[in-house]
Amino acid sequence: MLVPLPAPLPIRHGVVDREGWIAVRGDVAEIGGRLVALWGSERTAGRVVHAAYAVHDGLAWIELPLGAAGYPDLVP
User: Fold this and answer.
1) Residue 32: inside a domain, yes or no?
2) Nearest Cα to Cα of residue 75 among 22, 27, 38, 37
3) What is the rounded CA–CA span in Å between residue 74 and residue 24?
4) Which structural domain, as residue segments, surrounds residue 45?
5) How many Cα atoms occupy the beta-carbon half-sphere of 11 within 13 Å?
6) Is 29 left (phi over 0), alpha (psi -120 to 50) or beta?
7) In the predicted structure, residue 76 carries a pLDDT above the cut 90
8) What is the DSSP letter of 32?
């Protein structure tokens, strides 16, 4: 579930698992959205990969905490 964030541009944010990462990619493609950015970060709990998508009503930003397996490809 994406939670709205206070910003000048509507932004929704959510943390997903591997299946959610793939599902969001498909959902965004289905509505004609576009990948804006892909980046990684390191937190106390471990590494995280982030993806930001431009969608019809703003920006969708998702995070995937990484395990040993890495993250699923965004290319279908």
Assistant:
1) yes
2) 22
3) 10
4) 9-65
5) 12
6) alpha
7) no
8) T
